[in-house]
Amino acid sequence: MVLGAAISAVAGVEARAQLVDYEPAARATPVQEDAAWRLAFRPGMQVLTQTVGQLRVGAPAVLQAQVDAMVAEAARQPEPEARRTLWRAVSLMGGRAWTPEQERLGALALRTPSQIWTGQGDVLTAELLYPASGPVTYALDLYASQPTTSATPKKGALIRPLARGQLESYPAGIAARLADLPDGAYLLLAKLSAGSASADIVQPVYLVRDLDARYAELRRNLSGITGHEEAKALAEYPFALAQAMRAGRREVVSYDFPAAIRRSSEIVAALKGGRDPVRQATGLQNRAYRFAETGELIPYQVYVPTGWTPAKRWPLVVALHGANLDETNMLGRDGGRMQKLAEQHGFVVVTPLGYRLNSAYGSERGLAGLAGRDMTRVKRSEQDVLQVIALVEEEFNIDPGRRYLTGNSMGGGGTWWIGGRHNQMWAAIAPGAYGGVLAEDVPALAKLPIRVVVGERDDLMLDRVRETIATLKAGGVAPEYVEVPGGTHASAFETELPEIFNFFQKHAK
Questions:
Q1: Higher local confidence (pLDDT), 438 or 142
Q2: What is the CATH number assigned to the segment(s) 107-207?
Q3: Where are the beta strands (DSSP E) in 88-196?
Q4: Gap between the Cα atoms of 97 and 101, Å rounded
Q5: Contacts for 24 with CB less than 8 Å, ≥ 6 apart
Q6: Torsion angle of the four alpha carbons 224, 228, 230, 231, in this order, in degrees rounded to the nearest 10
Q7: Cα–Cα distance measured from residue 190 to residue 163, given in angstroms and rounded to the nearest whole number
Q8: Is 263 helix (H, G, I), strand (E, B) or coil?
Q9: Which residues contact 223 (CB under 8 A, 6 or more apart)?
Q10: Looking only at Cα atoms, what is the longest distance across the chain?
Q11: Is CATH 3.40.50.1820 the right assignment for the domain spanning 281-505?
């Protein structure tokens, strides 16, 4: 029942096949701007390679060939040298000469021991990601970080300048005092210059004061309350998340700690007053639960139609997000379209995290590379999806004959994977923007109604999805197949989503 990977995470040209939720040729300028902004965060090698591949879309063929050669070279190198090579590719695509100054700027990153800051004794340093030398002038400013469901934090308003100076040896401490600011999400942005070359580097931080004391107080308040596990888990989650981030065990795309902590206080007050504001609530909800294997709190989102009642059974859509995204993406994207469709059709929709970012929903093939080949994490990703389904089914009286599974990009890969491995669970599945089915997968998938969606302008996945359709047909399976006119890697799924819900409406076990 296991499914073939659509993307190899290994070296060479395949390494540029990114699993970022993006719009390629149709939005060339915004894509270039988004990718350049992502580079300022000095991401890990997987995302860095993805971003270089994203930048090459639409470039002249000669330039693409040069970039491909550099990507292939980087895949054979240890990380520091690979970063240097990929920055050279970025410079080439940006029309910038590869000078010692340009090389120097590409080596620099802002780093901090923890993204959770307290306003007291917080440390920010400029570090080298590969060997380089020479002076760099910097201007560090503080910006608000806007809430987002996309793959990269978004820059809000400038709050104030923080520091100015010159860097000559590394690591170098930089003064960044936030003691007088309220709790919240911030971006530390340094504008660098060396000769005529310039670049930006960014470090996101979350200011959460008195974390341990506030968490201890919350737990004291909850200790005297029996039952209400859903509400207590949600109340505890922002504090547990902050502690895990401080310890380096968790990462987030975007998180509003002040709002989440205010919600925690509201939940505690309601529970003390004899009311549970969480269990069987309707509308869009952030949730958390205790993951059975590790005991840690893991988030998910759920949308429950406003007309929900426990007096009848309800259909369930499980929606899996793409790479570099989180559990808030599917219900938040495209103006909340999935919420509107859930309300219209009377479906409960749940969107799991998948245990950690980029953990592939259990796939043991190429997508596991996103998790750094940590197969324990990959398997937990699948377990997270299944545990969340079980929780939602118990709470919201789900009809086991009307469970549906969908997702886009990496989430489409998760749909093939979990759909095939657990085909008895689903009344229908709808994978988007992902191929990779092998002949050995077809017998399990043959038992399911399937609607496959891809954009005709999906530079990443169109050919692979077509190959998957051919594989299915060769095995006697004829899924509904839609190539969305003008659709790209992200927009095709959004365009087709109303028809996905109509498709689900037609099928029951």
A1: 142
A2: 2.60.40.10
A3: 108-111, 116-117, 125-128, 136-146, 154-167, 172-173, 184-194
A4: 10
A5: 31, 54, 57, 58, 457, 458, 459, 460, 488, 489
A6: -60
A7: 9
A8: helix
A9: none
A10: 71
A11: yes
Helices (H), 59-99: 61-75, 79-93
Check if the beta carbon of residue 406 is closer than 8 Å to that of residue 319.
yes
Give the list of residues 6+ apart from residue 44 with CB closer than 8 angstroms, or none. Answer: none
Res. 405: pLDDT tops 60: yes
If one counts every other C-beta atom within 10 angstroms of the C-beta of residue 339, the result is 18
- The predicted pLDDT at position 33 comes to 78
C-alpha dihedral, 237 to 151 to 246 to 277, nearest 10° = -10
- How far apart CA 141 and CA 40 sit, in angstroms, is 14
Give 359-389 pLDDT, tens digit per residue: 999 977 555 455 456 889 999 999 999 999 9
For the chain, which residues make up each domain, given as ranges?
A: 12-106, 107-207, 210-279, 281-505
Q: What's the mean pLDDT in 183-197?
A: 97
In the chain, the amino acid numbered 200 is D
Q: Residue range 293-320: average pLDDT?
A: 97
Q: Give residues with Cβ within 8 angstroms of 348, minimum separation 6.
A: 302, 303, 304, 305, 308, 314, 315, 316, 317, 342, 392, 396, 398
Do residues 397 and 314 make contact, with C-beta atoms less than 8 angstroms apart?
yes
Mean pLDDT within 74-93: 96
The model carries a pTM of 0.89
Copy the structure tokens of residue 227: 């039952």
User: How much is the mean pLDDT over the chain?
Assistant: 90
